[in-house]
């Protein structure tokens, strides 16, 4: 995706700058860091997200709007729409 390409580009720019700083990292170290990030970026992201959620998390949400359209007696028809929302919560990491 474009977003992941931007992240990789930004990483390479950052690492290149670090190699040019006095006391910075070597080109070999930058290559190792870049390779690690490219291979483990998703796992690192998932780990950080799981560590930053302390409560229940939203697993799924569904909704609908109900409106009664027929009834035996016309005056008993309730024309007020009713919204029904169903949310599935779960513990973080489960």
Characterization of this structure:
Residues 57-94 form the COMM domain. Pfam families: COMM_domain, COMMD1_N. Belongs to the COMM domain-containing protein 1 family. The chain has 94 residues and is α+β, with helices and mostly antiparallel strands. The protein has helices spanning 2-20, 27-52, and strands at residues 57-66, 82-90. The chain folds into 2 domains: 2-52, no CATH class; 57-90, no CATH class.
Defining key terms:
single chain; 94 residues; alpha+beta; 2 domains; two-stranded antiparallel sheet; 2 helices; 20% strand
Short overview:
This protein has 94 residues and is α+β, with helices and mostly antiparallel strands.
- How many structural units, i.e. domains? 2
What does the average pLDDT come to?
86
Structural class per helix/strand content? alpha+beta
Number of strands: 2
Radius of gyration from the alpha-carbon trace, in angstroms: 26 Å
Q: Give the helix level as a range of percent.
A: 40-55%
Strand order of the largest sheet: 1-2
User: Unreliable stretches, pLDDT < 50, 5 or more residues?
Assistant: none
Write the element-wise H/E pattern from the N-terminal end onward: HHEE
> Number of helical runs?
2
Distance between the termini: 28 Å
Main sheet record: 2 strands, antiparallel
Shape: rod-shaped
**Fraction of residues in β-strands:** 15-25%
Domain COMM: 57-94
Protein name: COMM domain-containing protein 1
Family: Belongs to the COMM domain-containing protein 1 family.
């Amino acid at each position: 995706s474009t977003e992941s390409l931007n992240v990789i580009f930004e990483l390479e720019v950052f690492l290149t700058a670090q190699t040019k700083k006095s006391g910075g990292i070597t080109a070999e170290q930058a290559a190792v860091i870049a390779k690690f990030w490219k291979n483990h970026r998703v796992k690192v992201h998932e780990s950080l997200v799981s560590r930053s959620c302390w409560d229940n998390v939203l697993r799924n949400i569904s909704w609908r709007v109900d409106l009664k359209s027929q009834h035996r007696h016309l005056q008993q028809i309730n024309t007020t729409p009713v919204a029904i929302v169903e949310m599935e919560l779960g513990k973080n990491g489960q």
